[in-house]
Amino acid sequence: MAVVAPTTAVCAVAIPVTAAMLLGERPSAGQMVGIALAIVAIVLVSQQRSPAGEAGHHTLALHRLPPGLGLALLSGVAIGFFFLALARTASTAGLWPLLAARFVSVGFFGVAAVASGRSLRMAAPVAAIVIAAGIVDMLANALYLVATRYGPLSLVVPLSSLYPASTVVLARVVLGERLSAWQGVGIACALVAVLLIVGVEL
What is the pLDDT of residues 35-67, one digit of tens each? Predict the structure, then answer.
């Protein structure tokens, strides 16, 4: 997760922001600093504590690419283009782009499950959690879509991609997980990034 989460999130930010700037958006100097700080925050808050027994293993692994990096890059690129595609839809399309995206994804994974012989049945408690997660996910995507129609893409994407910070805070508050020093720094960077991106003078 310490490799996958920041890699995916940073790619997802970089592609829409780069496209927005190529299309003519020009954030202020303070907002540019905020965007850069948001990327740093994503990397820091995604760091996980490593068990002491694995220290030697990680030291040995420094000379090769981390496992899962290639898939994380592909995932980040796909998410980045998904964010960009949603932002490029016309306001007259309403929320239909989200419905189309969900229809395609559900159909794709349904076919994949049937083709691999996997059962689609879930226990009732699991199904309830999945439905709740789906509702929250669709709400988040809908808010992102609306935000891109009222604000510049180069600012909306970095703000929406700071979700790892809220996840880390919730893990601390709800699950009692301890934050590492780097995660604490990352959360502070995220807060400053938000202030800079929305144009608050520090």
Answer: 888 888 877 877 765 555 444 454 444 445 557
Give the closest residue to 95 by CA, choosing from 140, 61, 125, 51: 140
pLDDT for 51 equals 53
**Are 20 and 153 spatial neighbours (Cβ–Cβ below 8 Å)?**
yes
**171: which residues sit within 8 A by CB, 6+ positions away?**
177
Query: What's the start-to-end Cα distance of the chain, in Å?
Result: 33
Query: Which amino acid, 36?
Result: A
Angle at 180 between CA 156 and CA 65, to 5 degrees: 75
Written as six digits, the tokens of 9 are 């999130």
Q: What angle do CA 38, 42, 47 make, to 5 degrees?
A: 150
